[in-house]
Structures are given as structure tokens and as C-alpha cells.
Design a protein that fits this description.
Keywords: Glycosyltransferase, Transferase. Belongs to the ComF/GntX family. This protein has helices at 2-14, 37-42, 69-73, 89-100, 107-120, 139-145, 151-161, 184-191, 217-228; strands spanning 17-18, 25-26, 81-86, 131-134, 170-172, 195-197, 205-213, 233-241. By secondary structure, it is an alpha/beta fold. The chain has a domain at 77-249: Rossmann fold (3-Layer(aba) Sandwich), CATH 3.40.50. The structure holds zinc ion (2 copies). Residues 19, 21-22, 24, 35-36, 38-39 line the site of one zinc ion (ZN).
């Protein structure tokens, strides 16, 4: 009986699965996400050489985490940004597919990348979030897309940090035109007063979650709304951070 069970388990372990990104067949490893070796190699996490406040990459990945000049002179309203990788290559293609087609199979991968970004730089006890808040979509856009690209991937992060995930704390107060292709100043104008946060965040540390940070205008307005409602600290985590000088090409 035991032998038969062992044999069945071995057959299941050896069964080929399909890569959730490219669809190729492969033998799965003992990991949470199903990626073939080729996609795994292309989706390498950025582990160093960036500004810890805004994620701006330094020239070399081997450089230590140091503040960029922009964050020293005019820091963003959030206190730290965690991200999995730069919005480029396969990561960029995955996010575009995730956002623009209802490809729900990518939720676990997006969630996995957020968790990895959080594991790389654990929060100190003073910073530890009390609540995780996804960047909201306007109800009309949510209806069009069918899901919020920030909410579902935030669930594994909430489980990992044992912090509640609350999607109703931050709301869009008005419909804004799509941010795609807009330069930074126009994004800012487009988003002015577009968010409102619930006063239940008073005195609490908030972790904001989004899929990608482009110019930072969305995170900026969300963080400001949270502080306006009394949040003590706002930190942010995204799957991808746009490299500098690439804003116009991003989705
Ligand atoms: Zn693949
Ligand atoms: Zn910076």
C-alpha cells in the first residue's frame, strides 16, 4: 500500500506542467510558481544597486542601497519602495499581458514577485505595516477590466506578513483618464484629488500595493490621501519599477 502511494507521488512529481508565462512544457521544481527554466532566468529579481526610497537603479546592481539625489532633495511621500525587478523585458511583457487581458493565471506569479520583494528587505518592528492597501481602480474601470490588478496579488503578501488586506480604505473619488503615455506632470494633474482614504488609517502604518510604478504619480497621490487621513507611515511595494527615461514607452 505504502509502496503504491510512493509510486503515485513520484509519477505526479515527474509529470510535465506548462509554464504559466510562455506555455512551454517543463518538469516543475518545488516552487510556488510554475515557470520553465528559460522564463525563470529572464525574471531575475533586482537585489541591489537602487535607491531604497524610490527604487531608482544605480549603475551597477552590486552597489549598496543608497538614496538618490532626487530623494535627498525632494523625497516622495512614501518612506520606502520595494519592487521585484525593473519594468523591462519579460517582466514588462508579463505586466502588460496581466493588465490588458483577463489572464487570471498570472495572479500567483504577481503575488510571488511582491512576496520576494518584501522578503528581500524585511520591515523593522517600527515600520511593520498594520494594514495592506491596494491601489484602487475607479468602479467603472474595475467593471471594464473585471479585476483590480493590485488586489489579488496583494493577498499572498498579506498572508506572508500576517497583516490584513483592506481594499475599501482607499477610494477613487473621480474617474481619471488612463495614465499610459502621459509624462510625469500630466499624470500628476490627471490624478489631483483622485483618491480619498478612510480615517481608520489614523496612526497606522500602511503598505500600498500596485503592479508597476511608472512616474510614481499614482503612489504619490495615494500616499498623500493616506497621510491626509492620518496614516503614520506609508510604504509601497510593486512588482516592477520603470527604469529612468522610459516613461513614455510604458503601459
Ligand atoms: Zn516559460
Ligand atoms: Zn530615490
Amino acid at each position: 500500500m505504502m509502496q503504491a502511494l510512493r509510486r503515485i507521488k513520484r509519477i505526479i512529481a515527474l509529470r510535465e506542467r506548462r509554464c504559466m508565462v510562455c506555455g512551454d512544457c517543463f518538469r516543475p521544481q518545488q516552487t510556488a510558481v510554475l515557470l520553465c527554466n528559460s522564463c525563470r532566468r529572464q525574471l531575475v529579481q533586482r537585489t541591489g544597486g537602487f535607491c531604497p526610497r524610490c527604487g531608482l537603479p544605480h549603475a551597477l546592481e552590486s552597489m549598496p542601497l543608497t538614496l538618490c539625489s532626487s530623494c535627498i532633495s525632494t523625497p516622495p511621500p512614501w518612506l520606502s519602495l520595494r519592487f521585484y525587478g525593473l519594468y523591462d523585458g519579460l517582466l514588462r511583457r508579463i505586466i502588460i499581458r496581466y493588465k490588458h487581458t483577463p489572464d487570471l493565471t498570472l495572479h500567483p506569479l504577481m503575488g510571488h514577485m511582491l512576496c520576494q520583494a518584501l522578503r528581500l528587505r524585511p520591515f523593522s518592528p517600527q515600520e511593520k505595516p498594520d494594514v495592506i492597501v491596494p491601489v484602487p481602480l475607479h468602479p467603472a474601470r474595475l467593471h471594464m477590466r473585471g479585476f483590480n490588478q493590485s488586489y489579488l496579488p496583494a493577498r499572498p503578501a498579506a498572508v506572508m506578513l500576517t497583516v490584513p488586506l483592506q481594499k475599501n480604505i482607499l477610494r477613487r473619488t473621480r474617474y481619471t483618464s488612463a495614465q499610459t503615455g502621459l509624462p510625469k506632470e500630466e499624470r500628476r494633474r490627471n490624478l489631483r484629488d483622485a483618491f480619498e482614504a478612510d480615517s481608520c488609517v489614523r496612526g497606522r502604518n500602511v503598505l500600498l500595493v500596485d503592479d508597476v510604478m511608472t512616474t510614481g504619480a499614482t503612489l504619490e497621490h495615494c500616499a498623500q490621501a493616506l497621510y491626509h487621513a492620518g496614516a503614520q507611515q506609508v510604504h509601497a511595494v510593486v512588482a516592477a519599477r520603470t527604469p529612468p527615461h522610459a516613461h513614455r514607452q510604458t503601459a
